[in-house]
Amino acid sequence: MVLKAELVSPRARDWLLRNTAVRVLSVFDKACNLVDEGGDVVSLTTSELGAGPFAIVLPFSRIFSDFIRLEMSVARVRTGVLVGGLEVDVRFARVWQPVPSWHQLSATAVFPLLYTCLPPSLREGQLDMSGFPLSVQDRVNDAITRLVTGLVAEETAVTLPAVRTLAGLGHGLTPSGDDVLVGVMYGLWACWPTIKAQRWCKMLAETAVTCTNTLSAAWLQAASHGEATPPWHELVNGLITDSKTAVTLALARIQQTGHTSGTDALIGFTHLLRQLHTP
């Protein structure tokens, strides 16, 4: 079966040009994740799931897990990539740019609108660590506070230990602590000059990726470059245009991401913006 990809991210397009061994990392209904020897990930996704920082979007309605197995062979080919009997042709795919217009935002300008549109459950900025002992929940929320405080003060001695506490902590494909770090990095991209955001996000990601799983590390690396999914683009555009309706809809879409991934990322994002906005 040959499928012509609809969209491909620059990160995925570059991944296809490498000459290293590839395997199936994980398979779900709407996504199949591939990983190479260097630990770099590409996701084959359905149109319903949509674009992402390292995604190849396929015009596809079938369930990946019905016909792709972890043990299947994977090869980069002239047209794209071959997974078992599925050939993904990316030659005519439109390149989707994953970086929103962060540079048009600032904490002072956007936080009041963001806060107005936030659901009450997100205004406190507390991570839901249900299922963990209270001592762990307290340690995690304390780490978020220390992380943001350290970033605002630009103190690596405070920031990096907090990153190590959060990285890899939680359940799921992307643990809650990692999702918070993704949101915090988006906050840095939204509020700081590009070069400064790049430097600090690189430091955060390099500290975190050694403490978590392969797929979550890929999201952290992408976030360190300011790369985000379409709902985050919608949020940024809504904030730029000062549209309460657009911001509210975008926040709702972000919260629908994963089990708690979107909500956890918003906690990191809003917590940082709140601190940077406070005189």
How would you sum up this structure, described in words?
- By secondary structure, the protein is α/β, with parallel strands linked by helices.
- It folds into 2 domains: 2-95, no CATH class; 102-277, no CATH class.
- The protein has 11 helices and 10 strands.
- It has helices at residues 10-16, 107-117, 120-123, 134-153, 156-166, 176-191, 194-208, 214-224, 230-240, 244-255, 261-277; strands spanning 2-4, 7-8, 22-27, 31-36, 41-46, 55-58, 74-77, 80-83, 86-89, 94-95.
- The strands form 2 sheets. It has a 6-stranded mixed beta sheet. A 4-stranded mixed beta sheet has the order 1-9-8-7, with no helix packed on it.
- A hairpin with a 2-residue loop joins strand 8 and strand 9.
- Helix 2 (107-117) crosses helix 10, helix 4 (134-153) packs antiparallel against helix 5 and helix 7 runs antiparallel to helix 8.
- It is globular, with a radius of gyration of 19 Å.
- The protein starts with a strand and ends with a helix.
- The mean pLDDT is 92.
